[in-house]
Every structure is written in structure tokens, then in C-alpha cells.
Write a structure and sequence with these properties.
It contains 3 helices and no strands. The chain has about 70 residues and is an all-alpha fold.
Length: about 70
């Protein structure tokens, strides 16, 4: 669980920014959004395959540019 202690004399906004950064770094929101709805294993497999294909295309375009 992400938790941030407010330090002596620290602005609440600054503590909130530290909290948001910590949540972002831990991937809590990303995980929450991912598990918001059930995803069938076949859908997850298809989504991952599409992401891998996008990565491969992007890498090949970068190599062609160089």
C-alpha cells in the first residue's frame, strides 16, 4: 500500500505530489485499471501479441532511420 508521511512544516500539496509519484512508480493505478473488468485469457493473449507487433514495427522503423 502506498503511504506517505507528511513531514514537519511540509506543504500538503508537496506531500500529495510525492504520493502520486509513488503510486505511479509502483504501478498501482495501471494495475487497478487493468483489473477493472475481467479479461478472457484469449483476449489477453491477443492484446499482448498486438503490443509485441507494435514494438517490433517501431523498432524496425527506428533501425531504418539510423
Amino acid at each position: 500500500m502506498a503511504e506517505v508521511q507528511i513531514r514537519d512544516g511540509e506543504d500538503v500539496g508537496k506531500a500529495l505530489r510525492r504520493f502520486r509519484r509513488k503510486v505511479q512508480r509502483d504501478g498501482i493505478l495501471k494495475d487497478f485499471r487493468k483489473h477493472r473488468h475481467y479479461e478472457k485469457p484469449s483476449e489477453a493473449k491477443r492484446r499482448k501479441a498486438q503490443a509485441a507487433e507494435r514494438r517490433r514495427r517501431r523498432q524496425s522503423r527506428r533501425k531504418q532511420r539510423d
